[in-house]
């Protein structure tokens, strides 16, 4: 009888696990402190601004970057930048200690022009700038140390209108827009409610603003109820409204010089904003920024660390990583 032999199965080939790309460190070539860095809608352009009174634009990829343009025009340190939605073209707003907001457009590759110069927009430093949802047009909000927030809107005749709201006398440090559709009529979900803003100020508070459906003017949102069992005890440095995941369920992050980040949740258009403490950090917290899905939050603090946090299914938050760890 012929002998038979069983052949051993070949050993599986080890597959190399692709490692996610690490952080890219950009030599900004600014001549002074860098105060803000913002990626555009596609994550292909990076804008930075500095006390050297300039804004720099870089083309970036996962592995490299190149300086594309240096924008000038401010007469003082530039605190913040914001990209408009690409439906309006390649547009960037910048705000400065000089009390002005400049709106820049890339008219051809590497060539930029100022399409609107709001000089002396405020009586004091303009600390933050943010564009609204593209569905409501080309509109931006600017927060100032003079205690006011300005709303700049591009009109059909290609001019810009300005409206002011009085926030608090100590100064406003941050502003963020509610996503389009964050609020809708529960009886008629297709009826989108007027746009809203949240601000953070030197009075240690956050405030909510809305555009009146009757007059079209911006007013403090009288329907916003805030649970004050937890609050900041020092200046609020940044606020960020998370992208909408479910209608009428809204989440905001705020950070402060008191070294804390609070997560505010509103479960329903008339419900209270309820805060929880994300974490007590080792240094003042300067910036908070959401991922495009609203499930992850980046936090940057005064000890030069950036941490990433993720919401768990039970409503808690856990730290995923930090730039400090990745450097190690």
TrEMBL record:
Does the UniProt entry include the keyword Nucleus?
Answer: yes
One of the protein's GO biological processes: COPII-coated vesicle budding
The WD repeats extend over 229-264
SMART domains documented for this protein: WD40
Q: What is its main location?
A: nucleus
Q: Where in the cell is it found?
A: Nucleus, Nuclear pore complex
InterPro entries linked: Sec13/Seh1_fam, WD40/YVTN_repeat-like_dom_sf, WD40_repeat_dom_sf, WD40_rpt
Question: Which keywords are on file for this protein?
Answer: mRNA transport, Nuclear pore complex, Nucleus, Protein transport, Repeat, Translocation, Transport, WD repeat
Q: Which domain of life is it from?
A: Eukaryota
Q: Where is the signal peptide?
A: none
- GO MF term set: structural molecule activity
One cellular-component annotation, GO: COPII vesicle coat
Q: Which family does it belong to?
A: Belongs to the WD repeat SEC13 family.
Please name the PANTHER family in this protein's record: NUCLEAR PORE COMPLEX PROTEIN SEC13 / SEH1 FAMILY MEMBER, PROTEIN SEC13 HOMOLOG
Q: What is this protein called?
A: Transport protein SEC13
| The species this protein was found in | Seminavis robusta
């Amino acid at each position: 009888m012929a002998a038979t032999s069983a052949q051993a199965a070949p050993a599986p080939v080890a597959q190399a696990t692709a490692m996610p790309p690490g952080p890219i460190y950009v030599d900004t070539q600014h001549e002074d402190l860098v105060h803000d860095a913002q990626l555009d809608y596609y994550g292909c352009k990076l804008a930075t601004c500095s006390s050297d009174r300039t804004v720099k634009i870089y083309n970036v990829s996962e592995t490299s970057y190149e300086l594309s343009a240096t924008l000038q025009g401010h007469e003082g340190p530039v605190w913040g930048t914001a990209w408009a939605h690409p439906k309006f073209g390649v547009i960037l707003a910048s705000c400065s200690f000089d009390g002005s907001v400049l709106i820049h457009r890339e008219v051809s590759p590497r060539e930029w022009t100022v399409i609107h110069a709001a000089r002396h927009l405020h009586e004091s430093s303009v600390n933050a700038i943010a564009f609204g949802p593209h569905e409501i047009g080309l509109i931006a909000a600017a927060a100032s140390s003079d205690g006011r927030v300005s709303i700049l809107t591009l009109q059909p005749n290609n001019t810009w209108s300005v409206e002011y709201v009085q926030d608090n006398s100590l100064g406003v440090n941050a502003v963020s827009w509610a996503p389009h559709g964050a609020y809708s009529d529960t009886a008629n979900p297709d009826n989108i409610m007027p746009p809203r803003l949240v601000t953070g100020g030197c009075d240690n508070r956050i405030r909510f603003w809305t555009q009146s459906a009757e007059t079209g003017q911006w007013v403090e949102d009288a329907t916003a109820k805030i649970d004050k069992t937890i609050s900041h005890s020092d200046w609020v440095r940044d606020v960020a409204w998370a992208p909408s995941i479910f209608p009428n369920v809204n989440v905001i992050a705020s950070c402060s010089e008191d070294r804390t980040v609070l997560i505010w949740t509103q479960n329903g258009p008339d419900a209270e904003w309820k805060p929880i403490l994300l974490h007590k950090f080792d240094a003042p917290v300067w910036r908070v920024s959401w991922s495009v899905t609203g499930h992850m939050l980046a936090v940057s603090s005064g000890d030069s660390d950036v941490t990433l946090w993720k919401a768990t299914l039970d409503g808690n938050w856990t730290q995923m990583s930090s730039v400090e760890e990745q450097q190690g």
